[in-house]
Amino acid sequence: LALTMDTSGLLRFEPFVSSVDLSFWHELCRKKLDIFRLSEEPVPMNAFFNLASSVDSAARLALTSTAFDSAAKPPQHHFTVPGSLANFNTVEAFKNLDRKALLKKLADGIWEDIESGEAERDPSKLARWALTAFSDLKKYRFTYWFAFPAITPPSEKSFTTKAPPTPLSEFFAAQLGSVTEALVSARETNRFAFLIKKVGEKVETGDLSEWASFWTTEPEEDRVIAIATPSSSAGWPLRNLLVLLKHKLKLSTATILQIRCDRSDVKNFSASDVLQVDLFGGEQWSREQYGVVGWERTSDNKLAPRSLNLESTMDPTKYDFDCALSLFSLPTA
Predict the structure, then answer these.
(1) Centroid of chain to Cα 182
(2) Which residues partner with 167 through β-bridges?
(3) What is the DSSP letter of 34?
(4) CB-based burial of residue 110 (10 Å sphere; 0-12 exposed, 13-18 middle, 19+ buried)?
(5) Mean pLDDT lowest among 14-23, 122-131, 262-271
(6) Beta-strand runs (E) in the chain
(7) Burial grade of 162 (CB within 10 A; 0-12, 13-18, 19 or more)
């Protein structure tokens, strides 16, 4: 819990860390040869993350071979996050990509979902991501870079909280059994973010899109927004949710339930906590005043792509080498 904020109350958000299974690269090779061929158009796909379970949980966003299947369900107790892949034909095209422009384009898509109400209907779109890659099918070497776009307040502003997080068991002391049932249901139904209110010794939940009618006479601090949290500190998806709450719902403060779960006891949500976040009162900013960050850093904290050599582990007998080599001589028209 202590990692959520620093001594000044500034929220510290834990970035996603990409985790790409070997099966994903196998499937990408097959798709490249059989379907994508020379196309560099972005391809929609899904990744997933697990709820954080302890103070040392890393915020891993995982891709497997199922990423290409829009109908595939995530592993048990995981949450699906939509994204896209742009796979380039040459390393030069990969290196020359205007990454600032791409990040802005991704942020514009999030803004459109916020302003249209689509993000309220499907909050997982607030955590959208993009993968850019160059796949050398001759040597089974891959160069790739993930973007996890997060909209940021004007440079002189930051989201803060005035007090340390409140443990779930303390905030919902009279409703602990009821809120636990609600969180179990949310996890099993891939409910990424939703509304909660206390009603006596129970809680009621509602979709984010129901916010205008869901809350009535409850005090502001009891109007809770719950979000699946992949890290021990403030989750990366929370950043864009806070922007939605301020820009679209016009909230001055937000009570956020960060959902975490013990993986050995699926009904133990004791690692969850509740934050009171300051959204700068009634001060409003235009969309143009916000910025965006999100290109993944390397393990030594550098902004750079990652490389992977699977020549010794990928079975070449699975692929037709003549087909793979002829791919690069196909006409472009």
Answers:
(1) 22
(2) 273
(3) I
(4) buried
(5) 262-271
(6) 13-14, 17-20, 43-50, 60-63, 78-88, 129-136, 141-152, 160-161, 166-167, 193-199, 202-207, 224-228, 234-235, 253-259, 273-278, 291-295, 306-309
(7) exposed
Question: How do beta strands 141-152 and 306-309 pair?
Answer: antiparallel
Asked if residue 233 lies in contact with residue 13, where contact means CB atoms within 8 angstroms, the answer is yes
Q: Which residue has the tokens 């369900």?
A: 73
Site of tokens 């009634």: 282
Residue 47 has pLDDT above 60, yes or no: yes
Q: Which two tokens stand for residue 247?
A: 């820009």
Alpha carbons 162 and 255: distance in angstroms, whole number = 12
pLDDT, tens only, 105-144: 999 999 999 999 999 999 999 999 999 999 998 899 999 9
- Give the 3-state secondary structure percentages of the chain, helix then strand then coil, rounded to 5: 30, 30, 40
Count of alpha carbons within 13 angstroms of residue 43, beta-carbon side: 21
Q: Which long-range contacts (CB under 8 A, 24 or more apart) does 17-21 make?
A: 17/58, 17/59, 17/60, 17/61, 17/296, 18/60, 18/61, 18/63, 18/131, 18/146, 18/296, 18/306, 19/60, 19/61, 19/62, 19/63, 20/62, 20/63, 20/144, 20/308, 21/62, 21/63, 21/64, 21/65
What's the pTM? 0.90
Q: Which amino acid is at 112?
A: E
Give, in order, the Cα–Cα distances in Å from 26 to each of 22, 55, 319.
7, 34, 10
The answer to whether the CB of 190 falls within 8 A of the CB of 80 is yes
- CB atoms < 10 A from the CB of 202, how many? 14
State the Cα–Cα distance between residues 64 and 209, nearest whole angstrom: 31
pLDDT score of 311: 85
Q: How far apart are CA 154 and CA 295, in angstroms?
A: 19
Which tens digits make up the pLDDT trace of 65-89? Answer: 999 998 888 887 799 999 999 999 9
d(CA 194, CA 224) in angstroms, rounded, equals: 9
The conformation of residue 161, written as its DSSP 8-state character, comes to E
Specify whether the CB–CB gap between 216 and 178 falls below 8 A.
no
Alpha-carbon gap, residue 191 to 202, rounded angstroms:
19
